[in-house]
Amino acid sequence: MSPRRARRLAAGIIVALIAATLLPPFINANRFRNRLAETMRLSLGRDVQMGNLYFTLLPRPGFVIENLVIADDPAFSAEPVLRAGSVTAALRLTSLWRGRLELAQLSFDYPSLNLVRNAEGRWNLESVLMQASSVPAAPTGTPRPESRPRFPYIEASNGRINLRQGQEKLPHTLMEADFSLWLEAENQWNMRLEGRPTRTDAYLSDTGTVRMAGQFRRAATPGATPIRVDIEVERAQLGQATSLLTGRDRGWRGSTDITARLDGTARDFNVTATAEVTDFHRHDISTRDSLNARITCQGNVAFQSSRTTFECTLPIGKGAATVEGFVATHSYPDYDVAVAFREAPMASFANFMRRIKRDVPADLRAEGTFNGKYRLARTAGVSEATGAGRVTGLILSSEARGIALSVSSFDAEFPQPKKGVPPRMELNIGSAGMRLGGRVPVYVAARVTPAEISAEARGDADLKQLLAAAGLFGLADPRYQVTGFATFQLGVTGKFEGFAPPVVTGTALVRDVTTTVDGVAAPIVMQTAAIDLRPEAIVFDKAGVRLEGSSAVVAGRIVIPRHCPSNGCVSTFDLRTPELNLDEVNRVLNPRYRSSAWLSLPSIFAGKPVKTSRLMTLQARGTINIGRLVIKDLVANRAVAQLTFDRGKLEVADLQAELQGGKHKGTWRADLTGDEPVFSGQGSVEGLPLTQVNALLRSPLGTGTAKLTYELELRGSDAATLRRTASGTAGFRWTNGTWRTGGAAPAMQFSDWTGSLRIQDEVADLTSSVMQTRGGPYQVSGRAGFDRKLSLRLSGPRDQILLTGTMQAPVVAVEPAETLPARDSASKLPDASLRKTRN
Asked: What is the extent of the structural domain holding 758?
């Protein structure tokens, strides 16, 4: 090509491009609007409305249609079948030269399509497709123009497909849908569809991708249209898939992939499908290995008879399960399904259980096989279930639980229907026998219904083996170590809905039980107890409990609530013991016990920090009755108190006891929630004989009767710290008594001695104290240390007495009062013998 011709060609192209860019706005395309709408109406058989129409030359000649609305058949819906904000209709240039308006391609941007199914099972698009198929058209890819218009290539991007059942708008929808339709050959249409299924009433983001590719041909009626459709569902998360289908996440996890082919007519087609689930498990269970399953099905769907037949196979290890039958969807669904298991290994069932039941050991293993045949049917609203299966050679084992359980062969069957009794959908399992170290075997039977599974167990067993066996099914906490024996009759019920924890009920008589509890240093021994497991509480009755190594037996009744709310439950108790020696308890709990030490908190909490003990979560209240309570040399008889435990706080309220011959009444509290324990108490002791105090202090203090009141606070977890931090006040009234000041000095006699004490820094300061003697009142002041050192002053009308030294070895000095008048006789002094200093 010469340079001159090349320049002309380039100039022509430039002019054409400029014209294609500048001319379309000046062309009134709206004059083609009615003609284009009529063409679409005739092709679809539905009214068509459109907004503005614009002509475009680039990238190819055509029209841009705004606000396209295609009406639906009023018999189906008053809403449009299709809405699109923008539609590009590309023209075939060759048709323009022949004076015809022929579309090459229709492109819908963000369309909204409504699919409606009426009560007769017909779809609103059937008449549209029939109308379109009745219009003579050449295949889309025909290169040369014919007398027939060529069928345009129809595509939609980022669309939305809504579903209706009659006048009810369903929540199911297909978002981000891309669709294409074209006439591949004479009488053969091809289509493709891809989108993300979701619901309008829930937020679903991981339902996978649905892809469809198929073809259909012309037919006299919509139901006779030959179809072949391939469907693929890719990477659908199982929980989101159940939410999509049922409206609620059922709690299952895993990845789901489905492939299916529909081949036949629109009203009667065969189905071949495969479904795979990868890493199946419950949402709150995590395992190191994965459970994968693959099921293949083939069947037939006949809309004319509303009947679906199918046959599916699920490989299970070296065996398999098959399901075949039919489902008829009339006004009420009927079905007849046969289920068969052939040499299904119990190892696969154990693998399945590890993923559907919490607290099942991760190393649960099973041997044995299951064979059975069942039939499930429903006719005219009446359900029926028949068939039987048998488990043989079952051995359940777990190294973590330390058990290998051999179970006798047992059946799983539906009961034979009784005459006059409506059949029940109930599968009976067992009775299966096993040895668990008891006097007689343990027998287990179960019942499965569509709503729940329940089991019953009875027999006699070693508790360690019984709990290990229950742990195989996630029914026992492995943290508690228990030995002993039990004769029991128990029931377990678990609902399938919502993963509710199973409920264990029944009765048990336990004997010679030893267990450890987190937070208690010494093992707990229960000689006998009757246990009643109720739905609302666990009741221990006639229980005799003691700490191992201790002779004190605590008996009574304990009620522990079940199914507690988030703020916890409060247990109740009524306990009694003939004698409790805290020194003995300390010796049992504290390995560093010394005879001079008092009960220490670290021993109670088994060496654990107080805040980490399980006792810190305890909530309980009740009554304790102790016949004889011994705290070192202090003895309290017939002690009764109301105890309240509240997550690290203890209150001993209304503590009444005969204390050293007197009567005590008061309240004590302990707060273990802080950095160090805090103890506080207030109370009184009336009618306290001083002779009993003499024995307690191991010092001849005096005679008479005393009344004491006190209000104290102590901090710490050992005796030394408690003494150092003790603070508070006390008051006393000592009547009709004598006070032996020490040595050979005569005792001071008085009718009444009252006083107040302030306790701080291991010292008790005596304030506001007056002793009434025959010779007049004495003002008493001074202090006494916790180390038994004394510093007291008694100021009377004629003399003053100084008392120093210790309680075991007091030093007494008597001095004349400064204001005392001189007298020769000392007989009028209250105690003439105190005039001399004595040691």
From this structure: 747-839
DSSP assignment string, 760-799: ETTEEEEEEEEEEETTEEEEEEEEEETT-EEEEEEE-SSE
Decide if 119 is inside a domain. Answer: yes
pLDDT at residue 29 in the model: 59
What residue spans of 195-323 are helical by DSSP H? 238-246
Separation between Cα atoms, residue 772 and residue 737, nearest integer Å = 10
**Residue 59 covered by a domain:** yes
Which residues have C-beta within 8 Å of that of residue 651, sequence separation ≥ 6? Answer: 642, 643, 644, 667, 668, 669, 670
Which pLDDT score is estimated for 589?
Answer: 64
- Per-residue model confidence (pLDDT) at position 4: 65
Q: Which residues share a beta bridge with 222?
A: none
CA pair distance 523, 544, nearest whole angstrom: 14
- Antiparallel, parallel or unpaired: β 748-760 and 727-739: antiparallel
What does the alpha-carbon distance between residue 798 and residue 803 come to, in Å, rounded to a whole number? 17
Residue ending a domain, choose from 159, 176, 201: 201
Domains held by the chain: number: 2
Asked if the structure places residue 355 within a domain, the reply is no
Residues with pLDDT less than 50, the chain: 19-20, 22-23, 26, 592-609, 819-839
pLDDT of residue 699: 72
Contacts of residue 154, Cβ cutoff 8 Å, sequence gap at least 6: 105, 106, 108, 179, 180, 181, 182
pLDDT in the model for residue 107: 94
Task: Identify the domain boundary among 201, 235, 270.
Answer: 201
Tokens 């890719």 correspond to: 234
